Records
---
Amino acid sequence: MYQDPRSNPSASRLQHSLKQRHMSMIALGGVIGAGLFVGSGVVIHSAGPAAIISFLITGALVVLVMRMLGEMACALPAVGSFYEYARLAFDDRPAAGELAGFLTGWMYWYFWVIVVAVEAVAGASLVQFWLPGVPAWTISLVLLVLLTLTNLVSVASYGEFEFWFASIKVAAIVVFLFLGGLYVLGLWPHATGGLGNITAHGGFMPNGIGPVLSGAVAATGFYFGAEIVTIAAAEAAEPHQAVARATNSVISRVLFFYVGSILLVVALVPWNSAGMATPYVSALEAIHIPAAANIMNAVVLTAVLSALNSGLYASSRMLFALTRRGDAPAALARLNRRGVPVRAILAGTLFGYAAVVMSYVSPDKVFAFLVNSYGTVAIFVYVLIALSQLRLRARLERQAPERLKVRMWCFPWLTYVAIAGMLGIVTAMAFIPSQRTPLALGVVSLAILLAAFALRSIWRGPRLPQGQYET
């Protein structure tokens, strides 16, 4: 039951060429996306400086989930990561295990192919900042094709591109924290310094606790992505060490990058000013950095390309994993001679570009449904991850305690806290007017997947044995 699939003679032909430096940056890059650079302004404009608390609440939950994933990925490195964990956690109840795995895998695939579409649309608007005469759909197509080719070459090329994309994002945040810190401390030329903006415009929590809690809900989607490192573990040269280090790097840095940079933004820019529409551009302008708009546009474009790159990778590997249990068409399991799941990658690309087309053909219906539903789906995935860890940890302690190289803190109490927190977010969405539509559409998406599970026998072919893949 607990055999490492990579020790099996018939193990997957997926390449095992991701290096430690790739893994650390994949983990960090996954949580530093366009949502931080742009979407954080929406949370700040609603909650005021207390948005710091919003990001702290959600960040703490993500840290707990990452620790759970680190524990499971080190103990049981597998293609598909938490898709396999969901099935294994309920293997004493086969029907429940199949349902849990099916929902986890397909919801995660759905999340990332929508991210691919959203980021392709966002990338087009960013490139139009410099090339206003080029049609947006053309730019979206070019970006999708370029990143698809990167993923098709080899997993090493994905890792290398993501390493540099993530490096740029991390470097941008570090520089921002350094320069902003100098300004706030009064060490920057002509700086007034201080944290006056945090309390000067109606107080730290000007609109009460409600927007702070709704901001925590909205911030959930900004953090999603760090878990890609546990999927990439199956293609890492040393999965145990790579995952342990990468998840620890997320835990130690994610709150510093997010909460620290949000603190500086609200210290540099009044929370209720028009400049909060582009928070980081406005913050750079506040400390008199020349060409701030061009600099941040380039950084956000890098974040978008990183999300595109990661979306194609994560969706293809999850779809590939779904094929091994008969939860997706077996034809998608085919690998090329370089060990790359070409068909699974192309499936994500085609779905992503179809969604891009919908953003122009039906922006208020089809595309709006996709965009408004995928964030809630991400929370559902995290809840299933936590439930899986709760059951697997207890079983591992009984049957294979030596596999627990990384352990969830204060088990099982912090796992219960994480589950309660995520269920609390879902419940809160029902009482927050701006979040009711995303909640309803997320539930509709879940219902569609439940119907698909009931009908999956139509596409199910013979299931491949553990560790074996069609080639």
Note: The two ends are 24 Å apart (CA to CA).
---
Amino acid sequence: MTPHSVFQQSLDKSNRADPYPLYAELRKTPVRREEDGTYVVSTYNEIVALLHDPRVSSARPTFPQPGEPGFSEEAAQQPRAFINTDPPEHDRIRRIAMRHFGPPHSPHRIDDLRPEMVEIITGLIDGVAGRRRIDIVDDIAYPFPVTVICRILGVPREDEARFHAWADTVVEASDSRQEGRAQRLQRRQSALLELHRYLGGIAAERRRAPGDDLISGLITDQGPDGSMSPIQVAVTSTLLLIAGHETTVNLITNGMLTLLRHPEHLDRLRHEPDLAVSMVEELLRYEPPVHFLSLSRIALDDIDIAGTTIPKGAPIVLALAAGSRDPAHVPDPDRFDPDRRYNEHLGFGGGIHYCFGAPLARLETQIALTELARRLDNPRLVADPPPYRPSPGLRGPRHLFIDIDGVDRPAR
């Protein structure tokens, strides 16, 4: 059955390779109501306003509720990840987590990992030497950020196969379509419970014998905001484990796909590695890893915006990728331009829920794309468009096969 609304069409898998013409159609009505009562917001200024509006809650239930199929007492007793809470609890948990992850308390934690990141990406690229066809996703873009986030959290890298399947199930539930939503949320609930048990076990070990990893920091923290309970540590670690690699996989892959479609910029990056910083910012605007914020946003009161009233209790979808290409915000938005001087985008969201791991994702992508551009000899796409992942919200290729003539030696 053909989806009725422009928004539903943009979620359909047949449009995954190029949803941007549909986003342009969406923006003609900045705030539009779907048949199920959801309000879709697609223009830059309106999205920014709602990202900073305290009347927009991020605490809409994302598990089956009492009386609904799949309801679980165990799941109901789990605390929410801070990304699905509102102040003041959101702010307290996020501050505790940030103390062990980045500025202002741990300002060098991410940048100090740069040499190790370069070593990891070098090893991955070395691993494809001698081959003439590689998959950017499975060979590079997935194992790189997974290895890094496992190192940061203190999660054994050899357990990757276990949490990979759980993470895929959680990501699948970000699909905004109503069809099959209850089943997706039920599968998400089961996967999260498994992850909570797994990471809760690691946290218990770290309480007994702390290390220099993030989970050790969270489970032993006794700072001014109080401490996290063991289950809060497991829930927070689950969020960081999934968010710490899923979005970066897409960003690296979308980036390489974009550069292969614009070989002049790939060549520039090969010879101008400092271009990586502005190039990644443009990728976050032009081909972002996150297209929609949709699962948990809900209006706490009537909200008047762009001539429309979003009523209290209505679910809200923020179409971030549509907003970042809003021609009222940025000139020539459908052109990939790493030299763009004004580049405010929604690639990492905004407001109190601005992406926790943005510094890490930026650095990983800068390093990965620079090394790929420098070391792959004559890379070229096998198929364009490539096959895409099912999720319309976390959008990226499932595989990105490319042919190469060889792999150059790493710099010494």
Note: The mean pLDDT is 91.
